[in-house]
Amino acid sequence: LQPGLQARLEQLLADRLNTLPEANSMAALVVDNRTLEVRGYVGSADFSDPRRGAHVDMVRAQRSPGSTLKPFLYGMALDEGLIHSESLLIDAPQNFGGYAPGNFQADFSGPVSVSEALQRSLNVPAVDLLDRLGPERFAGRLRHAGLRLRMPANAAPNLSLILGGGSTSLEELVGAYTALARGGLAGRPRLTPGAAPHEVRLMSEG
Questions:
Q1: In the prediction, which pLDDT does 103 show?
Q2: Model pTM?
Q3: I want to staple 9 with a disulfide (CB 3.0 to 4.6 A). Which of 40, 161, 181, 198 is the partner?
């Protein structure tokens, strides 16, 4: 850990704490993308407040990733040739075998570019892409790179994955996100200086 960065990180979370509901907390993990060494680690915003789960290390706790898996889906879809940089996706009401996702803002935008769909985190285009790629294949690629998606008992990966339907840890999510800065190579965050680097290709360099 870098003491100065660690102190700033703890203060950042403390300053934001009063914007959250009483029973909520937050966590942060900062990793050096080049070495994968952890530089800042805050597992709980307030270790003295049991109402906020003070004893829970939220860096390693299992939580819904929300929409944070979408960049990996778009990267894999580009690698598989399902889309290209100028593709248009449809943001309109659709039904996927009984699953009918909506958007956070509740409205729809019609035809949108790939970049706009990702930038705006639109749900229907993402579910459509996951339907084409395959939920089990998507989950398998992430698992191979170190990001395991836990499903409810006996449930197989399904289209809800891309909207936070499974659970994972912030530690594994950060490890996967390093691929965006490391030419497609995901890495396991190194918590100790002697930990051997571990990296796996998640996406192509481009």
A1: 79
A2: 0.91
A3: 40
